[in-house]
Amino acid sequence: MSDDVNKNKGLGTDAPSGFGSSSRRAFLSRLGSVGLLATTAPLARAVPPATSEPPTTPSTPTPPQTGLPVTLLINGTEHKLQLDPRTTLLDCLRENIGLTGTKKGCDHGQCGACTVHINGRRVNSCLSFAVMHEGDEITTIEGLGQPGNLHPMQAAFVACDGYQCGYCTSGQIMSAAALMNEPCGPHDADVKELMSGNICRCGAYSNIVAAIQSVRQKKLSAS
């Protein structure tokens, strides 16, 4: 028994003098705790204290005003606008002015649904830039006649049933009204030739021609 105690003392398993009854494991635990505190203290000082100030919302900058200033005379009313120079007259009428009677069909100048009058002449508004027409007199279907005071061509289209779905009707009427001031022969074929730029996908061509011819006959009778 004494030999085992002497062996243990030789191996140094007993606690060294000055540490009382503390074991080596307790000593190493205290030593590790001291080292951890020594390393975390500088990190704790480096972290800024949390503030209670509310986050600031960055102000949204006001975008600069773009476009060209242009004044358009439409149906007798002046409209002061800022337009992208690429804006077509058709898009300007529908999107900027709110005159949606002028229809967007092919958007390539092939169907005539977007026909308006510029200085009395019929024009495909999808093929013309709006900024080109400052100072011009522009007339749309809304300015041609009003409910209760229809233009003679509008009244003739109603009387002759010159429409079916109605999508192309505003362009048909605008072209037909302009045709009254253009050189045109007396026959139906002459009217069809001058109206060939306006497509009716419903096929109401015979009634459209009848409406135009009825107005022409009344004009001849009155002259």
List the helices and strands and how they pair.
Layout: H1 2-11, H2 24-46, E1 68-74, E2 77-83, H3 89-97, E3 115-118, E4 121-124, E5 137-139, H4 141-144, H5 152-159, H6 169-179, H7 188-194, H8 205-222
Parallel strand pairs: 1-5
Antiparallel strand pairs: 1-2, 3-4, 3-5
Properties at a glance:
8 helices; elongated; 40% helix; single chain; 223 residues; alpha+beta; Ubiquitin-like (UB roll); DNA polymerase, domain 1
Descriptive report:
- With 223 residues, the chain is an alpha+beta fold.
- Helix content is 40%, strand content 11%.
- It is built from eight helices and five strands, in the order ααββαβββααααα.
- α5 packs across α8.
- The protein is elongated, with a radius of gyration of 45 Å.
